[in-house]
Each structure stands twice: as C-alpha cells, then as structure tokens.
Amino acid sequence: MHRLKTPTAVVEMALQARSEGLGIRATGRVVGKAHDSIRTWETRLATQVERWSPPAPTASVTVESDELYTKVERNRPAHESEG
C-alpha cells in the first residue's frame, strides 16, 4: 500500500481486532496507535479491498490432525446400535 507508514502486520492486527468487535479506542491501545489512525486505515482500505493483501507467512506451515472420523455403512439411530 502506498502512503501507509505503519507496518502491514500492525494494520492487519488492528483491522482483525475491529472485525472481531473490539472498539476503536481499545484497538488503538492494543496496537499502540491513535484511534484516528485506525479510523483512517478503515476508510482508506475499504475502498481498496481488492488490492489489499497482507504478506504471506515466510515460515513453512505444517498442519497436523490427531483425530480421524470414518463413516462405516450409514449412521444408525440409537435404538439400532444397542442390539
């Protein structure tokens, strides 16, 4: 983003907090910026949603799963499985 002096990670965190319902002044306290700056980011970036893309993570990402669900035949009602 041109003319954006704050690191994109900070802007992203602020916008994420706002989208989760955190108030504008509380968001300013959390990210260490003035609430007017956050309001300006929201206004400026709302018109540029198509071009706004936070940076991709530089580290590799590993996804692990510890549970496996297998469906055998069909789901049976409770009274059929007791017999």
Q: Describe it for me?
A:
The chain is mainly alpha-helical and 83 residues long. The chain has a domain at 1-55: Orthogonal Bundle (Arc Repressor Mutant, subunit A), CATH 1.10.10. The protein contains four helices and no strands. The longest helix is centred in the N-terminal third of the chain and has 12 residues, at 8-19. The protein is elongated and about 60 Å long. It starts with 7 loop residues before the first helix and ends with a helix.
Detail the topology: elements first, then pairings.
Blueprint: H1 8-19, H2 24-31, H3 35-46, H4 78-81
Helix pairs in contact: 1-2, 2-3
Nutshell version of this structure?
This protein is mostly helical and 83 residues long. It is built from four helices and no strands.
Radius of gyration: 22 Å
Which spans of ≥5 residues are poorly predicted at pLDDT below 50? none
Termini separation comes to: 65 Å
- Derived from helix and strand composition plus strand pairing, the structural class reads mainly alpha
Count of DSSP H/I helices: 4
Query: What name is given to the CATH topology of one domain?
Result: Arc Repressor Mutant, subunit A
Fraction of residues in H or I helices: 40-55%
The overall strand count is 0
**H-E order:** HHHH
Q: Report the β-strand fraction as a percent range.
A: under 5%
Quickly name the level 1 CATH class of one domain.
Mainly Alpha
Q: What key phrases describe this protein's structure?
A:
single chain, 83 residues, mainly alpha, Arc Repressor Mutant, subunit A, elongated
